[in-house]
Amino acid sequence: CKETGSCVTVCPANALSLEAKAAAPAAKKADAGAAKEFNAKEPLPKAVQDYAKTNAAKSAPVAGGDVWSGVWIIVEYNHGRIAPVSWELLGEGRKLADVIGCELCAVITGYQVDHVIREAFAYGAEKVYVIDDPVLENFRTEPYAEAITGLVRKYQPEIILMGATAIGRDVFPAVATRLRTGLTADCTVLGIDPETKLLQQTRPAFGGNIMATILCRSRRPQMSTVRPRVMAMPARVEGRSGEIVREQQSMTEDEIRTKVLEFIPGDAKSIFLDKAEIIVAVGLGIASQKNLPLVEELADSLGATLACTRGVVEAGWMSHDHQVGQTGVTVRPKVYIAIGISGAIQHLVGMETSDYIIAVNNDPEAGIFRVANYGILGDLFQVVPLLTAEFKKRLQ
Ligand code: FAD
């Protein structure tokens, strides 16, 4: 690091800063030819000073007083699809808002979103904040983060929640950084501390071995992303309505650094993995990509959706859209058939709440057998064709 500040000015999430104390040891260790000695008396580059001034002004106030009020759910809407976790969060948000005694609001940022507003009311929002603008047609971090941040600064909600989807995991850290507040990612349980009324944000930690409950005591808003399919879907009540607050998008197309050249939809089956009722999932036991047709045939015989472990994604045999687990999708199908999967904790957290788990593995000690309702101990290359033949016979 040569302390030029160039990284600070180009970071799209405004997440970097250059501080004299932190920079000094790094500069001392650096190759004398590559970086000059850091001198704390020298002024920081102008770009960095400007950045610090802007962000000091933008920093969110610390908690206190009663300015910050309300539970907000950020509704994820992209290319005509509403992420169902948005409605799960409205159900959960209702409980939190009732304990605190505040209002429950939805936030919709996108383009041509009137039908989404209706749905937000139907799922329980009392008020909906909307930014409807062509620059928000395709998801991009900068304009989405700017839109949400602008609304938060103006209306000051106490809690904001979003789904831990690919979009939520992308945009929420950028929002938290702009607001200089904390964010707990991938929560599986939320609650309100009865005394302090702080949001209790619980998530697996240390590879899923413990559950950690995290509080954000001194900054506002309190922010969490929540895994899809862990909160119950609330009842949809047709005809409910409430207040709509419309705001303008502050960023113009010229100010956005990324351009969408083309939109290529993903594999339709894997997009709906989190809603699939029957899943056939494959692990490294399949040994090679050329053996995948074996499990594809099994999935077809049941009308099931195909999924996999991270091992299979890392081997390049299937795309990440299909991955179940901690860093993939959480699923809760009626039937989950695990073929050649060891049952690592990071995989189990994404599927162990399935109604019925059937595991095929040739290792009697495999962890997957501990969560399976039915275990078939055997060589998958023998067992899977037998299962496929039997399902075809019975289901035809
Ligand atoms: P393996 O563990 O190699 O298991 C293969 C299994 O196949 C074995 O049990 C073996 O007995 C069996 N087998 C072999 N041959 C046969 C045969 N002929 N017949 C029957 N059975 C056979 N993993 C995920 O899946 N999802 C995640 O989201 C995820 N996130 C992670 C996040 C982090 C931070 C880390 C560190 C890891 C993560 N992992 C995740 C990786 C995880 O720890 C495991 O490495 C991975 O799940 C193992 O994949 P696997 O079961 O396919 O492979």
Automatic annotation (TrEMBL):
It comes from Acididesulfobacillus acetoxydans. InterPro entries: 4Fe4S_Fe-S-bd, 4Fe4S_Fe_S_CS, DHS-like_NAD/FAD-binding_dom, ETF_a/b_N, ETF_a/FixB, ETF_alpha_N, ETF_asu_C, Rossmann-like_a/b/a_fold. This is Electron transfer flavoprotein subunit alpha. Keywords: Flavoprotein, Iron, Iron-sulfur, Metal-binding. Residues 1-21 form the 4Fe-4S ferredoxin-type domain. PROSITE patterns: 4FE4S_FER_1, 4FE4S_FER_2. CDD domains: ETF_alpha (cd01715). GO terms for molecular function: electron transfer activity; flavin adenine dinucleotide binding; iron-sulfur cluster binding; metal ion binding. Coiled coil: none annotated.
